Amino acid sequence: MRKTLNIFVPHCSGMLTDHQPHGDGLVAYGFIKRLAERGHSLFVVAENINLSTPLPDNVHLFPIQYRFRSSALNRLDYMMQLRSLYHRLQRVVHFDLVHQLNPVYTGITLALWPLNVPVVLGPYVADWPANPDAISSSRSGVSSILRRVKRAAAHLQQKRATALLLTTEAARDRLVNSDPRGKSTYIVPHGIDSDFFCPSPGRPLRSESSVILFLANISERKGIFDLLVAFDRIAAKFPGASLLIAGGGEHEQDASKLASGLACARQIHFLGRQTRQQALEAFRNADIYCLPSHGEPFGMTVAEAMSCGLPVVVTNAGGVRWIVDDDGGLRVPERSPEDLARALSELLLDPGRRQTMGAHNRAKVLKLFTWERVIDQLEEIYTQSLRIRKRADLGEVRDPGRISNDAPQEVSAYE
Fold first, then answer.
1. What pLDDT was estimated at residue 211?
2. Does pTM surpass 0.90?
3. Which of 78, 102, 108, 248 is deepest in the core (most CB within 10 A)?
4. CA torsion 60→61→64→65, rounded to 10°?
5. What are the structural domains, with CATH classification, of the chain?
6. Is 315 buried (19+), middle (13-18) or exposed (0-12) by CB count in 10 A?
């Protein structure tokens, strides 16, 4: 992409951070930093900002704080503040496009309409089966109305967008338009810092003292209890194996209590919350990474483990089933400790297979998931979106939410 752009980012996660254990915030930072390194100027709105090092000078940050207890009122208040900010900035900045990063909160970009620039939404991630962050009500009638209003707003928001980005095919459940496979839809995964998350040189090929790592928020929906039950079933067969549980979360105490009552308790170790550097060391010291989530939206820690050259064991649910293939790991049904135990046992018994899987995963990340690859894709989508907008302004395209016939139907990271 030759032209550098002025990009307005109306939302970029609940927290923009380069070091805190906040998945969406770290991914947003990756997109913003690397777009800025390509020369683009970004005007970024965020709820909270927690950075250990400053972003480049061509990134301009605008924090907007929530002021109400009600999530619905906060959303409306955010949109009103956002609209006011955008119009103030428009007086001095010519924006080339608007890009709302994940999570794509419903309705946010509608606050900016009417717009005369392309709008890019995403990358969307798949939704959890039960999303605790969604706007809802304890009253069933009110919840039903909220769901209908949210769906209508999402339909309008997506219809007016020029491009919709999905991290994996699993995220198609977030699209509500009548033609979800329209030509404005692209597959663009989250990027991985493959220079940082890389294998440890000369890592030994262990057979007797293998380490299984779980690194994630310790919650029931991440499958932590399934993993503990599964490990208890195989621990006696592998007395030298250990299970490392890294992270914190709402069910940390419950998981620790369950683990302490198992026969294999001495083989299970809770490491607590991890810094980015500690997470790297945990990956490097492990032999298998396991995330038995009940519906992982994308699976950032799985991709990081793959980048570190680890074989992975995951569930066949959510986004992870699209990024883990048969050559790099094992996929099992969700909520099935028995299948999980069988898969872990298979890999514990075969160090050579683990090594081959890990090498495959590292090569796959370098080919598809590096930030350079992801930003290349994103800049191509920006180019397509600007072209579509220009044709729409000339009257050649009636619906700017649909890509013209001469544009590629889909840009996929998995080809």
1. 97
2. no
3. 102
4. -170
5. 6-191+370-393 (3.40.50.2000), 211-368 (3.40.50.2000)
6. buried
